[in-house]
Amino acid sequence: GAARLQHLELRSPADGRAPRNLKLFANSPSMDFNSAEDAVPTQSFDLDSIWSPADSVGAENVDDVSCKLTLNAARFKSVNTLTIFVVDSVGDTDVSAIRSLAVIGARVHKVTVMPGVL
Fold first, then answer.
1. Residue 92 · residue 19 · CB < 8 Å
2. Among 36, 104, 106, 109, which is 20 to 30 Å from 73 by CA?
3. Looking at per-residue confidence, does 1 or 13 come out higher?
4. pTM of this prediction?
5. CB atoms within 10 A of CB 96
């Protein structure tokens, strides 16, 4: 079923491989690299100034960075698929790394209105 997405939480290594620019595409299940580069995203983020040192409590990798991205509620109110395209990295490296990704939201329940019941 569909979900109403509220925000994303990312954690990446602090060695320059953290994503700088992200493009998010809702409900585009057959997206490939070429179409992700050219298509207009549902929402995009420049993370360069958003990354902050990650909370190291109980973490294996204390040199990580993390960020929380608030999603546009109207654009992510009924999502079946989410495509995340990493455009580039903070350190201009050829490789990007995301150590963890949490997608926060709620399931959308379908409501059926039956004539004459209400």
1. no
2. 36
3. 13
4. 0.85
5. 20
What letter represents residue 85's amino acid? F
pLDDT tens digits along 8-61: 999 999 999 999 999 999 999 999 999 999 999 999 999 999 999 987 655 566
79 secondary structure, DSSP code: B
Q: Which of 105, 76, 104, 80 lies closest to 2 in space, CA to CA?
A: 80
Residue 9 tokens read as: 């939480």
Q: Token digits for 103?
A: 């997608």
Scanning the chain, the segments in alpha helix (DSSP H) are 33-38
Closest Cα to residue 22, out of 99, 98, 102, 105?
98
